[in-house]
Amino acid sequence: MKHRVVVVGAGFAGLQAVKDLKGANCQITLIDQRNHHLFQPLLYQVATTLLATSEIAWPIRRVLRNRSDVTTLLATVSGVDVALREVVIDDDRRIPFDTLIVASGARHAYFGNDRWEIDAPGLKTLEDATTIRRRLLLAFERAELTEDEAEREAQLTFAVIGAGPTGVELVGIIAELAQRVLPDEFRRIDTRKARIMLIEAGPRILPAFPEKLSTYAAATLATRGVDVRTGLPVTSVSAKGITLGEQPIAARTVIWAAGVQASPAARWLGAPADRAGRVLAGPQLTVPGDDAIFVLGDTAHVESKGAPVPGIAPAAKQQGKHAARVIRARLAGRAEPPPFRYSHMGNLATIGRNAAVIDFNGFTLKGRLAWWIWGIAHIYFLIGTRSRLAVALSWLWSFVSGHNSARLITQKETLRKLD
Amino acid sequence: MKHRVVVVGAGFAGLQAVKDLKGANCQITLIDQRNHHLFQPLLYQVATTLLATSEIAWPIRRVLRNRSDVTTLLATVSGVDVALREVVIDDDRRIPFDTLIVASGARHAYFGNDRWEIDAPGLKTLEDATTIRRRLLLAFERAELTEDEAEREAQLTFAVIGAGPTGVELVGIIAELAQRVLPDEFRRIDTRKARIMLIEAGPRILPAFPEKLSTYAAATLATRGVDVRTGLPVTSVSAKGITLGEQPIAARTVIWAAGVQASPAARWLGAPADRAGRVLAGPQLTVPGDDAIFVLGDTAHVESKGAPVPGIAPAAKQQGKHAARVIRARLAGRAEPPPFRYSHMGNLATIGRNAAVIDFNGFTLKGRLAWWIWGIAHIYFLIGTRSRLAVALSWLWSFVSGHNSARLITQKETLRKLD
User: What are the residue boundaries of the FAD/NAD(P)-binding domain, all occurrences included (chains A, B) (predicted)?
Assistant: First the structure.
């Protein structure tokens, strides 16, 4: 019987591992609770009406249609029976494995305030993105509809909590929506008066970037009408708004971009984890004491050259590659490759039209050129010609016409009542 | 003060009326419960993974951004106060009018079996389309996952009830999905064995077309693996399947394309209606006894040359045009135009790749040429260059590559429990 590899999660890490196991003569089962692989680095553009959902997500089985060695299952993992070497999915069905790769990702972390999630959704899935898009657009609609001045102001106040790349990118596009895309479509409100807040508890935005790029980003956002607030934590979130330190701010749209929490992989595996719930991975990315179980990507705490590896797509892909290399070596009876070493390519973030920051290991770039490089790099990393064409068309259209093409409000707002 | 026109519904009829009132020196309020105008003739392609939602829907306020005389409100109409000349929206707010146009469309009709809707959704809104798409794709996923042979067969049985153009177009693409798009992506099931049923209680499919086109369509569908059943009504629908006459058929995916029911406009207006709930419109498309209230499109029963006008997009547009013409004549103090006359351009329906039927008032066409004409006509009627490019790209891609680009399963299945 062929060696059975079960991969949980078809994100960047899991999908890369599956790809790199091509021809390794094993029987692979890939399990994900979604039917699509998602290009998360552009998810914020779906949330902010620039891209459509179908442009950054691909059916997993379509990506792997030529891989007869891979069976894809749409199922939710409820646990792992480490002793019996089985993954447990819906209805207590069991999928046996010889080697297991757990790359099940992360969700937002609310640092003990999980009830904030309803009013301050994070951005990890397509549903998250359409929820945020719906709230953004509904806020403008409700502002247009209301006769109450205070309510109008609250509807036109948008608060993004957390100023890493995602937070910065979100406010950048929201500002463009309010300043450039929407003004001539409303009759009773001036969308340019919308208040867009970027809130960071730490001392500066984009903390992972060199300080001069943080300063540039903050200044650029300020000239585009974003109210950047650093140094004060959000102390409460409700349907009405937030409290910043001691100050209550009425904001009907709040987005959470502040932290992530790993999937329950540590619990499934009974393995030690760090504070964010990430399983502590060994030098070959396996669980300590169990060489046949790999943990990759956002669900793993991986160290390289003495520092933790960041939770970004290139790092996840490198880990997927490494796991596949280790498995192939073992199956071929060769010596295992040397321990995983993370190669950092750099940090990128857009700030809005014609503005981005790039830090390539100390070589920094900002402004228009950085923005174009950012765009070309992201087009390149998309899967398939169809998506590249579609995203390029959407971006070009938005750039030339000043209109965003994905501005539908769909699904009802069922989670919360606003007033 | 300017003449106040309130338009309820931004479908084909309402939007056309607003467009044709350009420069008429009135103050227009357009109310819709959605933020988008929807190109319903292609909605079935969203339901069947060929097109993305954003390709056939446009934000209403974007379409009307240059019309400073139009205020668009995203709101739900709860009634009309005919005596006070006010439309009542959410929260009992009132929008006064001098002239009212009600073009609020229709929903599916289940002929007294409203509880069937949960298990046999119809196709009127984008949410309907994504619900049907989710169920279609989940059925294949569940068939791949299950170990139970009977369950697998039920998951791979798809029943479309009603064989007008929508029903025929739906089964045409579902058959293509099963036969051409999906087979190489599944490992445990053969999607080509899926059973796709088109069910019509009447004696033939496409009853509005000449009989020879019905015969051609039925024969074409049969060669593509569709099980066409005419002459027997569906007598029950549940989560498990349907009963056709006396025969129970296990089918986990059931789609309703059998009938429509007008919006509650007749109740709002206290006006007489036909059996489908459509307000009986007079020769100028106004409510009998109230010249200032127009009823248009699917929400109206309009007669022309002694026959009822069909519920299709060109008819709705012509009615919108006529209403605007009457209003302009009145405002200018001119004589009103002659009563509304419907000009029938023809009936079109696709049956799948390279096959369509067209009936231009007796001149009929079928097959490949009809299919191309159908496609070009629909591209032409889309709004805006962006949509035309996007839809053309999606169609071209699907035609050339054999893959459909909108195959995401999003949102949870919350309405019903399957087992």
Answer: 4-320
